[in-house]
């Protein structure tokens, strides 16, 4: 868990909280003591997904670049 947190640039506590809220990257328990484990490819995939859904990384999601929308039922009068 410490290595995964360091890889993601997070504190182990944040990763712990996310895991119990069922947020963050996928994990599983392994071994006799049920040690929490993260696969490196799952961490990389989770990072890519965060980039994809973040408007700062994905110009298509940036509200500033969206086309203006017309109000429904509104008519301009001058």
Note down, in words, how this protein is organized.
With 78 residues, this protein is mainly alpha-helical. It is 38% helix and 8% strand. The protein has helices at 2-8, 12-20, 40-53; strands at 28-30, 35-37. A two-stranded antiparallel sheet has the order 1-2. The longest helix has 14 residues, at 40-53. The chain starts with a helix and ends in a 25-residue tail after the last helix.
Q: What is the H/E order?
A: HHEEH
* Low-confidence parts: none
Distance between the termini: 64 Å
> What is the 3D shape?
elongated
- Mean pLDDT, nearest integer? 85
Indicate the percent of residues in helices: 25-40%
DSSP helix count?
Answer: 3
What fraction of the residues are assigned to beta strands by DSSP? 5-15%
* Number of DSSP E strands: 2
User: What is the CA-atom radius of gyration, in angstroms?
Assistant: 20 Å
Strand order of the largest sheet: 1-2
Largest sheet: 2 strands, antiparallel
| Helix vs. strand class | mainly alpha
């Amino acid at each position: 868990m410490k290595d995964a947190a360091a890889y993601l640039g997070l504190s182990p506590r944040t990763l712990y909280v996310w895991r119990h809220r069922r947020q963050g990257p996928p994990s599983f328990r392994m071994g006799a003591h049920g040690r929490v484990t993260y696969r490196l490819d799952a961490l990389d995939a989770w990072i890519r997904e965060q980039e994809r859904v973040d408007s700062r990384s994905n110009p298509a999601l940036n509200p500033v670049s969206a086309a203006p929308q017309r109000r429904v039922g509104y008519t301009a009068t001058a």
